[in-house]
């Protein structure tokens, strides 16, 4: 499969399910992600639209993954809300099985100024429970590294750096839990994309555990999902790094609008092909 064929689109909440599949067929896109929250009826595994979509995806060779909201705090511990968080993740895993999605992207939650360790432990406990459901449903959980927030921010995402990621992956031992490497988030850290990968490898979480690589340009300062070429992320170096370490999975764009990603896919593929051709990959 060519690099271009391996580059997909995260529809997220930008487009409903069926039009998104039709777009992928038209544009010959092989990989999609989507968030089902705008149509919560699709979180019912008995909804016939899921079975219909599953057949259409299979007929056209498209792989669809599901993407939960980062706003849902996986590290939630409050009464009522904690039970709702468990139910939310379980519903996504059951919907994934019904639609034939091999993975569900989840997040490590977020913490406040003084409760980071407690929140990480709560999140690991919740994701451990979710991983047992994932195993029974035959679905993988893809845990995403998130963006750093300003140092003085009261609320910060978890799994934003290597140390937090190592804590999660050390304690999440289920084979159903894989890593979603969001390159534009790692680009914002002092050690950058290459430093993130190298430190994770030393911790025993190499590219063989990456289930998806996420793409957007970024200027390395604040959380931005920019059109390729409008930031300073070195896509060529990123592709050489990952492909050189043996990554052969899919890439997922997540920036701006769906038409922007359809056009940007050609730019990203050309950057990858040029970089890899120079090293004989």
TrEMBL record:
Pfam families: AP_endonuc_2. InterPro entries: IolE/XylAMocC-like, Xyl_isomerase-like_sf, Xyl_isomerase-like_TIM-brl. Residues 41-252 form the Xylose isomerase-like TIM barrel domain. Gene3D superfamilies: Divalent-metal-dependent TIM barrel enzymes. This is Xylose isomerase-like TIM barrel domain-containing protein. It comes from Terrihabitans soli.
């Amino acid at each position: 499969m060519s690099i271009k064929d391996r580059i997909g689109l995260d529809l997220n909440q930008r487009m409903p399910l069926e039009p998104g599949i039709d777009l992928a067929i038209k544009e010959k896109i092989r990989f999609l992600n989507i968030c089902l929250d705008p149509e919560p009826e699709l979180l019912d595994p008995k909804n016939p639209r899921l079975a219909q979509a599953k057949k259409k995806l299979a007929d056209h060779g498209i792989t669809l993954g599901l993407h939960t909201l980062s706003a849902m705090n996986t590290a939630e511990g409050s009464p009522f809300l904690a039970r709702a968080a468990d139910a939310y993740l379980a519903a996504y895993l059951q919907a994934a099985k019904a639609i034939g999605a091999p993975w569900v992207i989840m997040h490590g939650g977020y913490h406040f100024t003084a409760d980071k360790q407690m929140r990480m432990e709560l999140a690991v406990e919740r994701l451990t429970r979710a991983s047992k459901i994932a195993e029974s449903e035959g679905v993988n959980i893809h845990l995403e590294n998130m963006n750093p927030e300003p140092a003085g921010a009261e609320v910060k995402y978890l799994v934003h750096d290597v140390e937090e990621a190592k804590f999660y992956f050390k304690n999440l031992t289920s084979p159903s839990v894989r890593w979603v490497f969001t390159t534009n988030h790692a680009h914002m850290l002092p050690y950058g994309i290459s430093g993130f990968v190298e430190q994770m490898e030393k911790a025993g979480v190499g590219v063989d555990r990456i289930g998806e690589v996420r793409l957007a340009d970024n200027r390395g300062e604040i959380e931005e999902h920019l059109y390729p070429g409008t930031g300073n992320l070195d896509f060529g170096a990123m592709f050489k790094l990952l492909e050189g370490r043996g990554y052969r999975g899919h890439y997922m764009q997540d920036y701006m609008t769906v038409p922007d990603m359809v056009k940007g896919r050609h730019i990203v593929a050309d950057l990858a092909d040029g970089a890899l051709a120079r090293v004989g990959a």
